[in-house]
Design goal:
Layout: H1 2-16, H2 40-48, H3 55-63, E1 72-76, H4 78-85, H5 92-109, E2 116-124, E3 138-145, H6 149-159, E4 165-169, E5 172-178, H7 180-186, E6 197-204, E7 207-211, H8 213-223, H9 231-237, E8 245-249, H10 251-258, E9 280-286, E10 290-298, H11 302-322, H12 326-333, E11 336-340, E12 343-351, H13 352-363
Antiparallel strand pairs: 1-2, 1-8, 2-3, 3-7, 4-5, 5-6, 6-7, 8-9, 9-10, 10-12, 11-12
């Protein structure tokens, strides 16, 4: 049992080490399930005017309102992935084994992955230090669902065998652990310094957050109303609350922050150009027969949108012709790139049976090559050694 619990906590911490955290409730489970077919154009307009977003999206936005600021967000819907998507691709025997494993996890650790409301991950970039050194980004992940966050914290302390030390902050108690292999490498590579520690904390009764300590402190502050993420960013992330996975980010803003265009940690600077060009949204969702990919990239104005759409389309055509695999070419050829207004839209729909056939094809063991009859070896007689004739020098 100790080994099982240890593996569970290790898995949770590994997932936690990838991204974002905050405080949330169970509003995601109330999302309307009838909006699987995302219309990218209408969704883009909804982000510009958050008062027009659907009640389902508003419920998710409200549940994530206590997130700290982030430059990139990933929203994962475990219930749809585990309960709807995976059963379409895994054999019934594997599904049954997976569910038995989940029941064991629930019995021993109080966590059932099929009852998680969501996983939200995020990355936050930082301004340069006073000595103008680049700082690596911070990351955190938050999970909310039908589990006791305090119980998992207690379990984590037990299986860590004293490596998880308590650190009080903002009325919460964080568990902080040093990752020794990374700490050793950080002595040679300063870039790794930000990743030498990982922190985990119960933000409320059913919400667990983990990630870099600094970002976890920001999540605790956000729960108190300090430095919360904008409603616009959340509306962009969950414009389709029924997506299996969705992500949104601001690459240009991240670059500007990391390379001093907004100043340093101690010296703020007003940027000369405020632009949201490159801000993007992408999602994978499904209906009864298809998987759909939907994406939007901001271009600031219609002319730039057309230029970028033509560039993306040209790159997509080049990639399609360059890929040797026929099935991969078929998938790429189904992607449509268009410019609408000041945005670039990406759409693609793939029949579920097509994806299933592709997965089965890729998982088949490679056929053994036909055995080739070995040619008989002909023994070549050894060439007799030639004795060198010695000549005597005459005096």
């Amino acid at each position: 049992m100790q080994k099982t619990l240890g593996n569970l906590v290790a898995t949770l911490l590994l997932v936690a080490a990838t991204a974002l955290g905050a405080q949330a409730q169970n509003a995601v489970s109330q999302a309307n399930t009838g909006n699987a077919n995302l219309d990218a154009t209408n969704s883009a307009a909804a982000v510009k005017n958050t008062s027009t977003i659907s009640p389902a999206t508003q419920a998710v936005v409200n549940s994530l309102a206590n997130l700290p600021e982030a430059d990139m967000l990933v929203y994962i819907n475990p219930q749809r992935i585990l309960n709807e998507a995976l059963p379409k691709f895994l054999p019934a025997k594997d599904i049954e084994g997976m569910r038995k494993g989940f029941e064991e996890m629930k019995t021993k650790a109080g966590v059932d992955p099929t009852k998680l409301d969501y996983l939200v991950m995020a990355i936050r970039f930082r301004k340069p230090t006073a000595d103008l050194n680049f700082q690596s980004p911070e990351f955190m992940v938050v999970s909310s669902g039908d589990f006791s966050a305090d119980s998992i914290m207690t379990l984590a302390r037990t299986v860590s065998q004293g490596k998880l030390r308590d650190e009080p902050y903002g009325g919460k108690t964080m568990g902080v652990m040093t990752i020794d292999p990374i700490a050793k490498e950080a002595e040679k590579n300063p870039f790794l310094k930000s990743f030498t520690e990982i922190a985990v904390a119960a933000l409320n009764g059913n919400t667990l957050a983990a990630g870099t300590p600094g970002y976890l402190r920001a999540a605790i502050d956000a729960g108190e109303g300090k430095g919360r993420i904008s409603t616009e960013a959340l509306a962009s992330l969950v414009r389709d609350p029924n997506a299996l996975i969705s992500l949104a980010g601001s690459p240009w803003g991240s670059f500007a922050k990391s390379f001093g265009m907004h100043g340093t940690e101690i010296t703020p600077r007003t940027p000369r150009c405020e632009s949201k060009i490159g801000d993007f949204y992408a999602a994978l969702t499904m209906d009864a027969t298809n998987f759909m990919i939907r994406g939007v990239s901001n271009a600031d104005n219609p002319d730039t949108a057309r230029i970028l759409a033509n560039l993306y389309f040209g790159l997509l055509q080049f990639a399609t012709k360059s890929v040797p695999d026929a099935s991969a070419r078929s998938l790429l050829s189904a992607i449509a790139v268009t410019a609408e207004g000041d945005e670039v839209l990406v759409r693609a729909s793939f029949p579920q049976q097509m994806i299933l056939d592709l997965i089965k094809q890729k998982m088949k063991p490679k056929q053994e090559a036909a055995s080739v009859q070995a040619m008989p070896q002909v023994e070549v007689p050894a060439k007799p050694a030639v004795k060198k004739r010695r000549t005597r020098r005459r005096n």
